[in-house]
Each structure stands twice: as structure tokens, then as C-alpha cells.
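Now for one record:
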Amino acid sequence: MTIHCIAVDDEPVALEMIAAYVTKTPFLKLVDKCASAVTALTVLKEHPEVRLVFLDIRMADLNGLEFAGIVDQGDNRRSVRIVFTTAFDQYALDGHKLAALDYLLKPFSFADFTRAANRALEYFNLLEQDNEPQYLHVYANYQLVRIDIAQILYVESMADYIRIFLQDQPNPVKTLMTLKVVEQKLPGSHFVRLHRSFIVAIDKVTAVTKTSVQVGRAAIPVSDPYRQAFGNFMKSWRQPGS
């Protein structure tokens, strides 16, 4: 999972530090740096993909608590969440009243930042799991077939149709559908496209080389256009310390 975020702070040094911390965190993507909360509101409107805000509290014009109140009253379906950053711990209680994910007291280290980021990742993972479909419905052999998504090993494109390979089932399910369409139907937190012709279930990968991943008995190739996706996959798949 990649969490799109913004950093909001009227202190240039603090803003650059948070931006640097975000860049060092594999699952975070910095959309913008904002020197005021007013600017941040505009950025949120222009970038609906933003889900997380690292937000200073004491700022001119519109402070962080006021900003959080505005966001909290907005479209909750976006699930924008806030990590407060401030040098004044008396704001901690107000921050928790606004359902902040975390509260970082300046000056904070990268380790402190990482703990807050991991809490955000855990939150959004749980949120996504609640919204994820459990089944994929396709037409195969003139029937509407319900496939348990948790049983999918990988999906292969065969020009005008796809083959869906499942656990404990020797023959794949064949259906007239493009790989792009099935990619949109599968939860992105559990599946990754590493080749123009293949989508694999992340938790079904048992081994990895520089050019392929092993899923069941199949070696799925990794093609050059998907190297970035492969790199992101490796960061999430590899166990800490390995």
C-alpha cells in the first residue's frame, strides 16, 4: 500500500525535515509541502488521493486544530487522517479529541516519525480490508462463476481472454476479460502486476529472483516496465532483517 500525504508547517526547517522523513519511508508518497494550512486546504481539493496530513498546530491565519476541524466536517469517505506535529504538548488533548492518528512532539527523530507512519499504515490497511471484496464474479463456460479472491494464485492474460489460477484447483478458470479490467477488480493491497501478462497474489509468492517470482509451480517473469512495482513489492514482501 502507498499512502499519499502532505506536510504542513510554517517553519521551513521543520517542513523540509518532515518531507525528508516521508521520502525515506517506502509506503509514503509526498504529494506537496505546504507552508500554511490555507494552502493545504487547496491542495486537498486538488489532490483527492491524499489520505494523510502531517500537520503543525501553531500557525498564522489558520492553525492546525482549526484545519483539522474543517477536514473532519468534510467528506468523511475520503478518510483523510492527521498526525499532529508541534513543539507544545498542551495541544495533545485537543489533538486526540479530533481523532488524530498520532501526535509528534518536536523535536522528533526519524524513529518517532516511523512509529507514527506505521500506525497510519496499520489504520489504512484495516480500513481497506473492511472495504475489500471477497469474491470475483466472472463468466466461464456459459456460467456466472464466483471466485474466492483469497484462493487466487495469479492471473495470466492470453490476448482476448484471461486464465485465473487457483489454489487446490488443477485447471484455471478461463473468462473473456482483459487483464486491466481484472486488475481494477482485485484489491491492490494483495495483488501486484509485475508483467504486462501477469498479476500475482503477493502472499502466494514463495521465492524471488531478479527476473521472476515463484507462485506455486509457476515462475512469473518480471518485465522492465514494472520494475518500480517490483521494487515496491520487494519492500513489502521481504521480512525485516532478511
User: Anything to note?
Assistant: The chain has two domains: 3-131, 135-237.
